[in-house]
Fold this protein.
Amino acid sequence: MTRTYALKRLLEHGELSSKEIEEITCWTTRQVWATIQRMQKTEVVRKYPRMKWGLIDLKPFPYDTQSS
């Protein structure tokens, strides 16, 4: 499992600070920031208020609300 995949799965459960990510994963600060930077380049994560990282919701309504 790659760090990017692991972090994406963690962030599906809610926003986390970089320190919280370090504590949960036991990665170094450098590993956490490198993973976050890779995910920012591909626009998967963004920084939210209170210094928390979270997933960008690309499709807020993935289901069709209109019935056929």
Summary: Residues 58-64 have pLDDT under 50 and may be disordered. The longest strand covers residues 45-48. The helical segments are 3-11, 18-25, 29-41.
